[in-house]
UniProtKB/TrEMBL annotation, chain A:
It comes from Hippocampus comes (Tiger tail seahorse). This is Uncharacterized LOC109513483. GO terms for biological process: negative regulation of double-strand break repair via homologous recombination; positive regulation of double-strand break repair via nonhomologous end joining; positive regulation of isotype switching. InterPro entries: Shieldin_RINN1 (IPR039996). It comes from the Eukaryota.
Automatic annotation (TrEMBL), chain B:
Pfam families: HORMA (PF02301). Residues 13-203 form the HORMA domain. It is found in: Nucleus. SUPFAM superfamilies: The spindle assembly checkpoint protein mad2 (SSF56019). GO terms for cellular component: nucleus; zeta DNA polymerase complex. Keywords: DNA damage, Nucleus. It comes from the Eukaryota. It comes from Hippocampus comes. This is Mitotic spindle assembly checkpoint protein MAD2B. One of its GO terms (biological process) is DNA damage response.
Amino acid sequence: MMEDVVLHHRLEGSDGLSDLIATTEKLLEPFPCRPPPVFTPWFSDSSARRPPPIRPAKCAPVINAADVKCRPEALKEGVGGTTNSPSVVDKKSASVAAMAVKRSWSVLASKSVRHRSPSLSKGFRHALSVHALHLRQRSKWVISQHNCGAVRDIEQVWQALSKAARRAGLPTCNANIQREHAEIWVFCDVAYSEQVGHFLKERLQLVGSIRLHVHKLGDVFRL
Amino acid sequence: MTTLTRQDLNFGQVVADILCEFLEVAIHLILYVREVYPSGIFQKRKKYNVPVQMSCHPELNQYIQDTLHCIKPLIEKNDAEKVVVVIMDKEHHPVERFVFEISQPPLLSISSDTLLSHVEQLLRAFILKISVCDAVLNNNPPECSFTVLVHTRNSAMRNMEKVQVIKDFPWIVADEQEVHMQEPRLIPLKTLTSDIVKMQLYVEERAQKM
């Protein structure tokens, strides 16, 4: 709704006034409105005219976190482990199987175990002094196929070691199986290496002597 | 420098090989980053000289391989316009769509350098973008699944014959509800322009996911 408009002007003749009124009326006319043109997309392929997409009829497999926890070996050995094809595997056998296929493990010894310095034999002390070894230096026991005896192979010894290590909590140890060399390498600090070596020989019932190897020095001790 | 046209025997195959290899890596990574599957089934690998996560679940791997094996002939013939990795909620409504728009030039000039180093660098950038895309996306609801949609340039039914290359892996036209997303948010991730392929990746994300 338009309010009254007051026009102020100078009295300089009636001709000028009529012009002013005409101009003012024009100015007060509403602006012409142009309807906007219909939007036409500049791209030719409107989605309405595109063919619908295609997809595989089969749904993607559903895998729950619980399945993954229960059957870690399935992921590596190519066995399906989905909820669509569940299988009953008890947790104990699954964890043993997982240990068997695992290539390496490490033990974080408790502080109480670590602070107890083991007693060292005279022969081992001699080896330490000859090679100038530091007690915190890393060393590795090498278990070869010939240490396993005639009735066992390196895989069986590895399984036995993995099981035993879980209970024993071998201090400062980590181990791995070198399948291409048919060897098991058990790494530990020099301080604990004699203790670990005895444990390996007794618990795994190894035959012959096992070698203690130190990087750059080679074999420094045999047990 | 060798100049090849699309009619040349091996050109389409070369592009399809490169793209399918890339899409395989990208799909695995998307599934990992967007937590469609438990992280326990993924292992760290190296591809395009960057670390990526690949599933080690045989059934999932087979599914992805079969899907890409079927898509390959479409890419080879330049019939695939978009490959879309759709992440769906438990009601099978899309929550995210990773759209790979692919375009191949009709005339190409390629050399071994072009293929091996330059394209690899460009694809690496895509992978890096995907690996950090969770920073710009909202969390997905639990129990999500995924599917792969292929938008073709020509009739879907005609292309259906091309993708049925594996006997036990049939393809169907996608349902409307799998394609359309309500109020999507568009997040451009990366574009690629090379002598052999042009590609852009963007994500369409549903505004209300939960």
